[in-house]
Design goal:
By secondary structure, the chain is an all-beta fold. It has no helices and 6 strands. The strands form 2 sheets. It has a 4-stranded antiparallel sheet, with no helix packed on it. The protein has a two-stranded antiparallel sheet with strand order 1-2. The two termini are about 15 Å apart.
């Protein structure tokens, strides 16, 4: 049976298992290869993770503002910053 855990970071909760790679909200002042420790919200176990990439950009989101009859148009974009981690050990 696969061991799972629920970790919380960046105001979000993630269901993880060992060996899983995931993108979380960007963590400040981390370097590639650093170790992180989270707490399992379900079973109060330690979850160890390793930083794969400290800065990863997400997909582009385009925002359009438009007011009819006034020739008012604004176009802006946004790319969210993420940190890629790999779960190494649960327990």
């Amino acid at each position: 049976m696969e061991t799972i855990a629920v970790i919380k970071t960046g105001g979000k909760q993630y269901k993880v298992s060992e060996g899983v790679k995931l993108l979380i909200e960007k963590l400040p002042a981390v370097k590639k290869g650093d170790k992180l420790e989270f707490e399992d919200l379900l079973h109060q176990r330690k979850v160890l993770a390793r930083i794969l990439e400290p800065e990863v950009k997400g997909g582009k989101v385009t925002i359009l503002k438009f007011k009819p009859k006034n020739r008012y148009r604004r176009k802006t974009g946004h790319r969210q910053q993420y940190t890629q981690i790999e779960i190494q050990k649960i327990g």
